[in-house]
Structure formats: C-alpha cells, structure tokens
Amino acid sequence: MELVDTHCHLNFRSYDSDRAQALQRARAAGVSRIIIPAVDLVGCQQALELTTSFQDIFASVGVHPNSSADFADSTLERLRKLASNAKVVAIGETGLDYYWDKSPKPRQWRAFESQLALASELELPVIIHNREASSDLMTMLENWAPGAPASLHGRLGVLHSFSASGEIAERALALGFYLGFTGPVTYKKADELRDIARRTPINRILVETDGPFLAPQQRRGKRNEPAYLQYINQKLAELHCVTPDEMARRTTCNAERLFALPAC
Prior knowledge:
alpha/beta; single chain; 8 strands; TIM Barrel; 41% helix; 8-stranded parallel β-sheet
C-alpha cells in the first residue's frame, strides 16, 4: 500500500525532537510522499529546507489567512521567488478563516486573491483553508476559476480538511476542486462529514493528516503524524466499499495528478 499525505506541517516545532523517526514510521506505514504546506514566509523557507534533506518531501508556499495581517506586495514577490523551487507543487495554505480574529477580513481577502492570481500566473494548484467562511470563499473561487489557465482545469486545487456543508462540497467539486479528508472523518459523531465523503467521487478525494493537528479517532489526543494516515484511508475505504489498498491506489493517483508529483 502506498499513500501520499498531501497536508502535514512537518516543519512545526512539535516534530523537532523526532522528525526523522516520524518519517521512518510514515514509510513503514506506507506513506511514500508528504507535502508540507507553509502558513507564512518563515514556514516556506523551513519547508523548502526539509525538501532538500528528504527526497520524499514536497512543499507548498503560501500565507495562511491567520498570518495575513501584514500581507503586502513584497510578500507576494517573495512567494513568487520561492515558488520557482522545483519541489514546490502548489500555492498555499491560503484561504479564509472567520473563526479566529487574527487578521481583518479585508486583509484576508487581499492575501487570498493575490495568491489565487499567483497560482494562475505560475500554473500551480492551490491548497485552500476554510473555517466558517464558506460563502465568501466560494464566491471568490467561483470568480477566479473561469479565468484560470487551461493547464489547471480539473486540477485547480484542494479544499483541505474539508468541514463545510454538502452544498459547498458540490460547488467545489463542480469547479474542479478536490476535497481533502483528515482525522475528523473517523470521529464517532462525524456522520454528516462521512456522508459527504461517501458522496464525493473517489477520483476527487485526497487523504491528509494535517499533522500535528486532528489525529484520527484511533490516536485522538496524541500529536498527529503521517503514519496515522492509514486510519483515514481505512475509513474512506469503508465508506466507498473498496479495499484499503484500492483506496490508497486511487488517492495516490489523485495526488499525483493534482500536484504533478513525480512517480516513486
């Protein structure tokens, strides 16, 4: 079984004491490649440094909405330069977050729109964060998507750690986005999320840990890590009535297609 963890913050401090060991555990659990999505410029640099140390790690460069208060033209220029690295496979983590009050909405909108424009310019998919901002976020994506380059049609990006409504899922899928599922799909009370995952076409599903956050039910309360991706894969396999090996094969193909990952 081969899995791709398409969203893990391996550059965060919580991995500093055992990062290499966590990667060994991931490989033993079948995780062949990992994408680190940056949340700010410092994180971009950290992620790129890790890509040079580990062949199976890739990066996405971007500014998270909660880090967008100081977003400026110079920030965008820095992202443009960072994205020229061959191991950068996406722009993000970007999007909107109305749950936390860490950046005014107009600042978030500017940062998000700027990064969407950069993704079009560089012909890279986007990794989208959405927390309690679905209406504005989908309006912005629906305005952006028709003008995206032909090379991104069908692979605009992913709504990461999907947690919105079924209607939002349908709108995102209609645009050509993928949906990423994380630990909550395994939680005991997540019936609505499981129903959305069940109704999502298997060729539009990505598996993510979002480590160190959102550990699956089997490891809930612990720091999340890529080795735990197997539990998410297993739950999605159950929902789609396929074997875990088949679900892993399909989501790995999805990740390779969306992010243009080289084959192992």
